[in-house]
């Protein structure tokens, strides 16, 4: 078995994972990606020098080509297409090839049913900061995935960020926090920028302030041992301006609003899983 890693479908999420892996030192010669359009394949090959990118419009069997001989195959198309893709490449897989799905809402059982009996499967949920090597990537092993095979997948994915192992029943909750979470941070930055404009700041300046503040706070949270509660308290002086803002957020129920949003995201993931079944 080679060291090749195949990315079947290379949209934003799979490319984010691939970017993080390459930045961490994965040999580009061991990476192959499949896409639909030749233009997209050329773009990937130029941006990630040394990888192989195969376009379906030029080579209709591109997915089978990429899967053949690969140690790890990462399925990265939209959830509605994952099962069909798994069936398409099932005949091209070695019994030892580990199939990883990064699609939300597609269960391990659904994936295993579409693959040859005994095929090792891992369900994963990365988030978009993976392209900077600062993502969170979950792994949940399937029925036939050994400890060594799971470790191989962890080693492959660790270049994309922090890898956490969770039981499959927790994936929807994890997705609601880390999978959708970057959008929450961007939403906060949007709201902060809009508030600055309302207070009289120039729109470009307000956006700059919001963007750099959220990014800088994120870097502080990334420090070893950092805890959001301690960091917040350090900025919140008694009877000061920040304390007044936080009190207003609490009065308006912001923690409950965030919890409601996370529950809604998790519930929607469960709904999609049922629909796909």
Task: Walk me through this protein's architecture.
With about 280 residues, the chain is α/β, with parallel strands linked by helices. The protein folds into two domains: about 160 residues, Rossmann fold (3-Layer(aba) Sandwich); about 90 residues, ProC C-terminal domain-like (ProC C-terminal domain-like fold). It has twelve helices and eight strands. The protein is elongated. The mean pLDDT is about 95.
Write the layout of secondary structure elements.
Layout: E1 5-8, H1 12-23, E2 31-35, H2 38-47, E3 52-55, H3 62-67, E4 72-75, H4 79-89, E5 98-101, H5 108-113, E6 121-125, E7 135-141, H6 147-157, E8 161-165, H7 171-179, H8 181-198, H9 203-221, H10 228-235, H11 241-251, H12 254-276
Parallel strand pairs: 1-2, 1-4, 2-3, 4-5, 5-6, 7-8
Antiparallel strand pairs: 6-7
Helix pairs in contact: 7-12, 8-9
Helical residues, percent? 40-55%
**Level-2 CATH architecture of the largest domain:** 3-Layer(aba) Sandwich
**At the fourth CATH level, what is the homologous superfamily of the largest domain?**
NAD(P)-binding Rossmann-like Domain
Query: How would you state the average pLDDT, rounded?
Result: 95
* Low-confidence regions: none
- Approximately what portion of the residues adopt beta-strand conformation? 5-15%
**CATH fold topology of the largest domain:** Rossmann fold
Report the radius of gyration as a whole number of Å: 21 Å
Read across the widest sheet, the strand sequence of neighbours is 3-2-1-4-5-6-7-8
What would you call the structural class?
Answer: alpha/beta
| Span of the ends, CA to CA | 33 Å
Largest sheet: 8 strands, mixed
Number of strands: 8
Name the CATH class of the largest domain: Alpha Beta
Q: In total, how many domains does the architecture comprise? A: 2
Give the SSE order as H and E letters: EHEHEHEHEHEEHEHHHHHH
Helix count, DSSP H or I runs of 4 or more residues: 12
């Amino acid at each position: 078995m080679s060291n090749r890693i195949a990315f079947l479908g290379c949209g934003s999420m799979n490319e984010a994972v691939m970017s993080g892996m390459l930045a961490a030192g994965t040999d580009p010669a061991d990476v192959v990606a499949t896409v639909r359009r030749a233009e997209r394949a050329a773009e990937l090959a130029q941006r990630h020098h040394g990888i192989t990118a195969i376009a379906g419009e030029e080579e209709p069997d591109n997915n089978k080509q990429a899967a053949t001989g690969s140690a790890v195959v990462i399925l990265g198309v939209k959830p509605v297409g994952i099962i069909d893709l798994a069936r398409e490449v099932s005949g091209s897989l070695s019994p030892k090839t580990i199939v990883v799905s990064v699609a939300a809402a597609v269960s391990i059982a659904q994936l295993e049913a579409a693959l040859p009996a005994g095929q090792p499967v891992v369900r994963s949920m990365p988030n978009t900061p993976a392209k900077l090597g600062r993502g969170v990537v979950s792994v949940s092993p399937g029925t036939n995935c050994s400890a060594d095979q799971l470790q191989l997948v962890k080693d492959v994915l660790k270049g994309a960020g922090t890898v956490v192992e969770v039981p499959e029943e927790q994936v929807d909750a994890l997705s609601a926090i880390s999978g959708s979470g970057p959008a929450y941070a961007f939403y906060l930055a949007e709201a902060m920028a809009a508030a600055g404009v309302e207070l009289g700041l120039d729109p470009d300046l307000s956006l700059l302030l919001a963007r750099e503040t959220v990014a800088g706070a994120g870097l502080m949270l990334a420090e070893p041992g950092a805890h959001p509660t301690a960091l917040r308290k350090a900025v919140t002086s008694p009877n000061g301006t920040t304390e007044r803002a936080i009190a207003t957020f609490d009065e308006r129920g912001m923690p409950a609003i965030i919890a409601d949003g996370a529950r809604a995201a998790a519930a929607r993931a469960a709904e999609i899983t049922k629909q796909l079944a």
